[in-house]
Amino acid sequence: MYGLQISAAIVGLLVCIGKASGIACYNCSSEHDPLCGDPFWGGSQYLINCPSSCLKVKRSSTYGQKFHRSCFKAEIAGPMLGGAMDKHCVTQYVPFQGEVTQCYCTAKGCNSGPSSHCNLITLTVVCLIGALTFESYIL
């Protein structure tokens, strides 16, 4: 029984270990792809791995709206935005471009990055399967 608990713990740890060395961000421009506008439904073809944070730029003018999504370096944005990088948007008027809103984010849910947090349901299912498998060998 003690061996079963150790095996279940090892399997649980393996489930919790993620390979999320960065963050997955969408990378597209509505100038080249109309599907990149708002609302944006995403898709795996737009995902790229970024080192630290994501960027979304919205330009609004009399000619309409344009969107750009890509990576952004948090090391640069942190000092520019006062250090708070969970989610931050800056809106300003740019001559001949109109209103430009830039949003930077690194918080969970702002992109499609793989989570390195352990999902309790996944861990429970894996442990139950492991326990049932090892129990059949013991009995």
UniProtKB/TrEMBL annotation:
<dbReference type="Pfam" id="PF17064">
    <property type="entry name" value="QVR"/>
</dbReference>
<keyword id="KW-1003">Cell membrane</keyword>
<comment type="function">
    <text>Bifunctional regulator of neuronal activity in the mushroom body, and possibly other regions of the brain, that acts as a signaling molecule required for homeostatic regulation of sleep under normal conditions and after sleep deprivation. Reduces neuronal excitability by enhancing Sh/shaker K(+) channel activity; possibly by stabilizing Sh/shaker to increase protein levels, accelerating its activation kinetics, slowing C-type inactivation and enhancing recovery from inactivation. Specifically affects the A-type K(+) current.</text>
</comment>
<comment type="similarity">
    <text>Belongs to the quiver family.</text>
</comment>
<dbReference type="GO" id="GO:0032222">
    <property type="term" value="P:regulation of synaptic transmission, cholinergic"/>
</dbReference>
<dbReference type="GO" id="GO:0005886">
    <property type="term" value="C:plasma membrane"/>
</dbReference>
<comment type="subunit">
    <text>Interacts (via loop 2 of the three-fingered Ly-6 domain) with Sh/shaker; this interaction may stabilize both components of the complex and may be required for targeting or retention of Sh/shaker to neural cell projections. Interacts (via loop 2 of the three-fingered Ly-6 domain) with nAChRalpha3 and potentially other nicotinic acetylcholine receptors; this interaction is required for antagonism of nicotinic acetylcholine receptors.</text>
</comment>
<dbReference type="InterPro" id="IPR050975">
    <property type="entry name" value="Sleep_regulator"/>
</dbReference>
<keyword id="KW-0325">Glycoprotein</keyword>
<protein>
    <recommendedName>
        <fullName>UPAR/Ly6 domain-containing protein qvr</fullName>
    </recommendedName>
</protein>
<dbReference type="GO" id="GO:0030431">
    <property type="term" value="P:sleep"/>
</dbReference>
<dbReference type="GO" id="GO:0045121">
    <property type="term" value="C:membrane raft"/>
</dbReference>
<dbReference type="InterPro" id="IPR031424">
    <property type="entry name" value="QVR-like"/>
</dbReference>
<feature type="signal peptide">
    <location>
        <begin position="1"/>
        <end position="22"/>
    </location>
</feature>
<keyword id="KW-1015">Disulfide bond</keyword>
<keyword id="KW-0732">Signal</keyword>
<keyword id="KW-0090">Biological rhythms</keyword>
<dbReference type="GO" id="GO:0048511">
    <property type="term" value="P:rhythmic process"/>
</dbReference>
<keyword id="KW-0472">Membrane</keyword>
